[in-house]
Amino acid sequence: MNKFGSYPQIGRRGFLAGSAALVGLSQMPRAARAQPKTGGTLRLSVNQGGTSDTLNPAEANGSQQIMVGWALRNNLTEIGTDNKLKPELATNWSSEDAQTWVFKLRPGVTFHNGKSLTSDDVIASLNLHRGEESTSGAKALLAGVDTIAAEGTDTVVVTLSSPNADFPFILSDYHFQIMPVGDDGELDMSGTGTGGYILESWKPGVKTVLKRNPDYWKEGAAHFDTVELLLISDSSAATTALVTGEIDAVQSAEYKTLSLLGRDKNVEIESISGGFHPVFAMQTSQAPFNDNNVRLALKYGVDREALVKQVLRGHGTVANDHPVAPSMPFYDASLEQRAYDPDKAKFHLKEAGLDSLTIPLSVSDSLFAGAVDAVTLYREHAAPAGIDLEVAREPGDGYWSDVWMKKPFFTSSWGARPVPDMIFATAYSKGGDWNESQFSNDKFQQLMLAARSELDEAKRAQMYGDMQVILRDEGGSVIPFFRNFVYARRADVQHGDNVASNWSLDGYKAIERWWKA
Prior knowledge:
Dipeptide-binding Protein, domain 3, seven-stranded mixed sheet, four-stranded antiparallel sheet, alpha+beta, globular
């Protein structure tokens, strides 16, 4: 097999190198963990979602939609518990030039409705995210695709406009779930999939009920008989429900309650390092954020170390206004870390012709535990520079539809992507549907396209380093820290020795991977 061949070769970059570490919080010794078994009910709370959520994966953008989608469906590739790329509905893939990719489909896989998986289903599912009419949040990730064609019923050939050594990683993105094509030629987006669970009821913003798929093709997975996924945006309420046994696991544990939870023998807490990061996003096409001096003032006006210490209680690391985490490939460790400097912030305000700045910053408790606290502290940090950040506390229900990318200055949160190109193409590409800061930089765009096609690792590293500099110094995103995933579960809810760190709750696949002892 050539060097762009099937897994494990394609995983040579060691995404999030090695397995995620449990940072000293788990109560139960690993030797005492029970072996997987089938049965029981998992009652799981998530804190991102709303009544406007949908089962259309093209529009998925919060934990409720992602977790339900992955319980019902599969991708061609996935990030495993060891944080490496693995085959899912594709058994293998290969390419001679990183431009034409051939994916072999797994035989014997059926959808919940009994239909066999074929190349037509894969092509239609991927094409949902392509074309001028597509409104998919992942449209930019497939912008380099020229054609997607079938070779029989079990082979899909994707031809790119230029080489992309990371293309199999892209197909692990949560948007690219595979759905069946109906007799009318239309995709069935009702929830029918090849996944380990079948949809019983769907009440977005409230509760989703799933039943185990007895014919699931994946061995050693989907152990629960029933899963109840509840949206509880208030982390304190979710924690209380966990302690009283009303739910079995919470997506995000309140930092201020960790010491109390740690004394409960029926609860296990885990802190998993990864690339999750909040963003204070400025709409750079609008005044005053169209002036880079204003953007720099806001970047110098935040004390990152204080946020990690006071908001995260040490469960994270400082960030440098770009989304490439230290655990990701091509992270540039030589890049000077921006430090808190109110005098420099004041200087850049004056360069923008301003003596002071008053601006609201939107935030919601539902984004992550401590989100409102982070913005409140940011306001205190920025004040000495003459910046008055008004804390605009928004409701969790509808935040992603009514606030995100609608307000001029708002808070968002992003999970890790396995390679830099995926987050760059999604959130920073010129004209991209999810380019939340409306960032537009010709040099950045040129480097992004060139790095995607560059097969020399050293040259790619230099390009990605240059892109990190551009975002740090000219981007419209204040990225103060990378936050550990801190979640909690009842002690009788178990998982294997490794858990994925690309998203919370085992890569948002706890429903499939965990079990009840």
